[in-house]
Amino acid sequence: MNIYARHKLYGHTLAEHIQTISDELPVDAVGLWQIVPAGRYGFGLEGAELSDFIRLCVLALLAHGAKPVLGGGGTKYAWIYQPQYGETNEEIADAVAKEWLAAGSPDCYPGGLWFALSSPYVGNRE
Predict the structure, then answer these.
(1) Minimal CA–CA distance to 19: which of 60, 48, 66?
(2) Which of 32, 51, 85, 119 has its CA 20 to 30 A from that of 97?
(3) How many CB atoms lie within 10 A of CB 39?
(4) How far apart are CA 120 and CA 29, in angstroms?
């Protein structure tokens, strides 16, 4: 994967994208549905390179304190923590990439997996 590749629309490098993906976390969660198209359409990645990009983005989010979550609709929480992905950042990133590949490498949808900082708005699965 060429970390110096430039985003087709915005012009930043792939490395810059990964480095700054966590900037949104203090304001909102970051969804897998945002990560996949950025790699696929923004940087033109496919196959193993796209899977690696997803894994690196997830690792960057986790390194900044994010946790895997799903929307908490119907609960008292905005987000519900998803512990099944593992405990370490490496385990979580690997599990997310593996699940995405097993689903057929889709573009994803906003109702799917997100990454959010822990807060009073994040609860455990009930």
Answers:
(1) 60
(2) 119
(3) 24
(4) 14
| pTM score over 0.90 | yes
> What are the residue boundaries of the structural domains of the chain, listed by start?
30-123
Q: Longest C-alpha distance within the chain, in Å?
A: 43
Tokens of 98: 């593996």
Q: Which tokens in the block code for residue 69? A: 């979550």
Residue labelled with tokens 């969804």: 31
- Give the chain as a 3 state SS string: CCCCCECCCCCCEHHHHHHHHHHHCCCCCEEHHHHHHHHHHHCCCCHHHHHHHHHHHHHHHHHCCEEEEEECCCCCCCEEECHHHCCCHHHHHHHHHHHHHHCCCCCCCCCCCEEEECCCCEECCC
Q: Which residues of 96-106 are buried (b: 16+ CB within 10 A; e: fewer)?
A: bbeebeeeebe
Closest to 32 in 3D by CA, of 87, 86, 112: 112
